[in-house]
Amino acid sequence: MLDLVIKGGQVVTPQGAGFWDVGVQGEQIVAVALPGTLTEAGRAIDATGTIVVPGGIEPHTHLAHFISMHPDEDNHTLGPEDDTRGMVFGGTTTHVDFCFVRPGLSVQQAIEQRVARWKGNSYADYSFHVALQGQLPIPLFDQLQDAIAEGFPSFKVFTVNVLPPHPKRHPYRLDYGRIQLAMDKVAKHGGIMVVHAEDDDLVQFNYEKFREEKRTEGWLLPEVHTKLSEKLAFRRTIMLAEATGAGVYFVHTSAREGVEAVVEARAKGLPIYAETLHHYACFTADDYKTPRGFCYHTYPSLKFPDDQKALWDGLVRDGVSTTATDEFPTSLELKLRGRELENVTGGNLGAEARMGIVWTEGVVRRGMSLERFVAVTSSNAAKILGFYPKKGAIAPGSDADLVLIDPSIRKALAKSDFHVSDYSPWEGWRIDGWPVTTILRGKVVVANGKLHGDLRDGRLVSRKIDPAVLRRASA
User: Considering its fold, how many domains does the chain have in total?
Assistant: First the structure.
């Protein structure tokens, strides 16, 4: 007898969408069958009227993270024990955070510190990108092979110091020589580069120029973190990746120029992938001038309507592979504390809303197919980062991570719809459909507006990237 059957819903599988029953035994899916054929189960969920999709995968979070925009204060973002509660309410069952390797720390030490922080403190499953920062000693790069073998095959680098230097602020930027060395290592051993790509010379010069001109208002951020900066860094990084044979996953693509660079590289068959944020796709630089406009800010900055169009075209069709949040959860007071170019608090509070917003804005309002919705919210991230097919698929043998979306829910979102902080940047946004049930590895963790999971549910997931993903664009 099966432990659980989900019946009556429209199920999105790797073979397409259809009306199927899904059978679960223990933590895994064991059957996707014709309606009415899975008759014996310990529990049945009637999914009639809903769309059943794989649990969302949030590929970019910064939880329990030092807030470097205010370096003289010892502030950190909310931890997994807070933010992952919102994730499971919003249909996200797996997230990828970061462990930071800086001079004086080994890769293994960085991984162990973050794993210890998360253990027993997450409602959702999790993994970590290894972030390489600063003037790291060259011999350290020999450790990347071991991290890949241990199940951590993605390596984050910044081509820019996002903010001006400060004595209490860790340098983010990795020089291109070290990026090339990292690319050489990961290309040989089955890893992928995760790149925050902006041109450091332009960004730092723009900070200096605006400071000199005494133009420091935060709404000027798009003139510091510019479209040209993204264009230069994307294209330079792609050229380096082509020379080394490395795969690249560009995080939080914000500009049309970034999308175009990725589309051109993919047309050549290169394993280049772009992530964007639903914030970038739904808000523009003009929103900075509204009373709570900095709620929508992360780095790089919000851009303009032509950039939004390029992002949605890439999400609905091809060119942009995933949606993420750059999740950086704080209180409203802390999020709005900085008002000037050099202290606006970065990052977003949006993981809980991600699945529902992409459903409304992608499927309902722009005609995104159900299969493409699954791709940009779950399966592409699973494939690119090495979770697939354990995660990101409704198929026999996959983890029973399932989400039921009710397309009949039509409303303006309110603060009471969220479960993390004292605000959400999505308050007032009109939605047409919302996640109502979340299942993590066979356990119903959210149903009927109530949390049934606990902090011991989330587990560390080992990852291995399919070599096909690293040979050519395939997600």
Answer: 1
Q: Which pLDDT value is given to residue 21?
A: 98
Q: Dump pLDDT digits (tens) for 215-274.
A: 999 999 999 999 999 999 999 999 999 999 999 999 999 999 999 999 999 999 999 999
Alpha-carbon distance of 431 to 259, in angstroms, equals 26
Task: Give the separation between CA 443 and CA 435, rounded to whole angstroms.
Answer: 16
Asked if the structure places residue 11 within a domain, the reply is no
Evaluate whether residue 148 is within a structural domain.
yes
Residue 461 falls inside a structural domain:
no
Number of residues assigned to the chain = 475
Separation between Cα atoms, residue 111 and residue 131, nearest integer Å: 10
Domain that holds residue 133: 56-392
Q: Which letter does DSSP use for residue 142 in this model?
A: G
Tokens, residue 351 = 């993981």
In this structure, is residue 105 part of a structural domain? yes
pLDDT, tens digit, for every residue of 34-88?
A: 999 998 999 999 999 999 999 999 999 999 999 999 999 999 999 999 999 999 9
Rounded to 5 degrees, what angle do the CA atoms 8, 11, 16 make? 140
CA distance 312 to 317: 8
- Spatial distance between the Cα atoms of 455 and 145, rounded to a whole number of angstroms: 31
What is the amino acid identity at position 13?
A: T
SS3 282: helix
Measured distance CA(55)–CA(105) in Å, rounded: 34
* Dist. CA 164–CA 344, nearest whole Å: 12
Consecutive H or E run containing 170: none
Q: How far is CA 97 from CA 136, 142, 195, 293, 347, in A?
A: 21, 22, 14, 26, 13
CATH code of the domain covering residue 128: 3.20.20.140
CA distances from 370 to 16, 55, 375, 433, 439 (A): 8, 14, 9, 13, 19
In whole angstroms, give the CA distance from residue 456 to residue 445.
12
Q: β-strand 92-101 against 125-132: which pairing, if any?
A: parallel
**What is the per-residue pLDDT for 300?**
96
- Is 234 within 8 Å of 258 (Cβ atoms)? yes
